[in-house]
Write a structure and sequence with these properties.
This protein has 290 residues and is of the alpha/beta class. It is built from 13 helices and 9 strands. The strands form 2 sheets. It has a 6-stranded parallel beta sheet with strand order 3-2-1-4-5-6. Strands 7-8-9 form a 3-stranded mixed beta sheet.
């Protein structure tokens, strides 16, 4: 049994921390901005509730986080009551937030100065992947720290890969989101075309999913898109945040993202339609309304 801490118990963090306790048998201390959510986690999984990130990190060999964006991450690490205030030398901080490579490098440098390590480790697989312990984890940082944290991460992951130095995990997650944005828009256009042409769209999906057009999005979201149901998985407003980070990073590197920028604008439209909490496959809804 290892003493661990988990900061941020949203739709992803809650089950991920749960796997550390239930599957791993670790002693887990949790912190969440909303105390009620942390209390609910303790009631379900045991462990301990901390009043601040610093108190959660105190005595933990590995501290995990999964929060909203760069400012949230800085607050729970570098804030007056942040986890970095409570971490001992030789420990590891593993961040699962989808954030910028810039903040990952910043926090990795700060951690090293304080005598511990920071890994940027964003995930893919959505809420279902977190609940089923089947996430893909993309890691940037020090190899020894990665090896130290990997066995614990494996309790909620099907794949855990070190991609390179600090920031490499976040950059890889950006590649993931860029690819997904284009796939969902293509799927939306194809299904909207099928519906307007009078085809049986679900039968079309059954056929083309056996060929070169097959994708995870098609297999898992195609039929619900036809049914105009969008209460599954990753929310539009989170994707808007992720694509904003992608576009900002592309400007720094000089990479062209014409499709990604266009799809980011479409997601802005969906949010203005009241769809900020719809899942990302809702791109088809703006086409249906045209």
């Amino acid at each position: 049994m290892t003493k661990l801490a988990f900061i941020g118990l949203g739709v992803m963090g809650f089950p991920m921390a749960g796997h550390l306790a239930a599957r791993g048998g670790h002693e887990v201390t949790v912190y969440n901005r909303s105390r009620a959510k942390a209390q609910a986690w303790v009631e379900k999984y045991g462990g301990r509730l901390a009043e601040t990130p610093a108190k959660a990190a105190d005595g933990a060999s590995i501290v995990f986080s999964c929060v909203g964006d760069d400012p949230d991450l800085r607050e729970v690490t570098l804030g007056a009551s942040g986890a970095f205030q409570g971490m001992a030398k030789g420990t590891v901080f593993v961040d699962h937030t989808t954030a910028s490579a810039k903040v990952a490098r910043e926090l990795a440098a700060e951690a090293k100065e304080r005598g511990f390590e920071f890994l940027d480790a964003p995930v893919s697989g959505g809420q279902a992947g977190a609940e089923n312990g089947q996430l893909t984890v993309m890691v940037g940082g020090d190899f020894a720290a990665f090896e130290q944290a990997k066995p614990a991460i494996a309790h909620y992951a099907k794949a855990v890969t070190l991609l390179g130095p600090s920031g490499a995990g976040q950059l890889t997650k950006m590649v993931n989101q860029i690819c997904i944005a284009g796939l969902i828009q293509g799927l939306s256009e194809g299904l909207n075309f099928a519906l307007r042409a009078g085809l049986d769209a679900k039968l079309v999906l059954d056929v083309i999913s056996k060929g070169a057009a097959q994708s995870w999005q098609m297999e898992n979201r195609g039929k619900t898109m036809v049914d105009d149901k969008f209460d599954f998985g990753f929310a539009v407003d989170w994707m808007r945040k992720d694509l904003r980070i992608c576009v900002e990073s592309a400007r720094e590197s000089g990479a062209a993202l014409p499709v990604t920028q266009t799809v980011a604008g479409y997601y802005d439209e969906i949010s203005k339609m009241g769809g900020g909490r719809w899942d990302t496959s809702s791109l088809i809804r703006r086409l249906r309304r045209q």
